[in-house]
Amino acid sequence: MRNNKKDGFVNMSEALNDFKSQKKLSRGFLKVDINDAWKEVMGPGIESYTTQVKLNGDKLIVSLSSSVLRQELSYGRSKIVTNINEHMGKEVVKTLVLK
């Protein structure tokens, strides 16, 4: 019987996580991941009114096309920040700016 496991080989997910965790690359991947997190946490209804999601340091800047929605979301800023950080698995966002 043939042994398919080879010594010295690394699992693909482990290799990708190591690759993503490199200092120069992690910030770029984080910006992509935060965009996906916004879409998944907020849902398709709010996503349709979102024009831009940008991470600047620990500040998440979100541009919305509806001033009414922007006002409604401003009441729940802390809950949105908490949900996004939970989705990301670490504290990435400290403040949320709605434009």
From TrEMBL:
InterPro entries: DciA-like (IPR007922). This is DUF721 domain-containing protein.
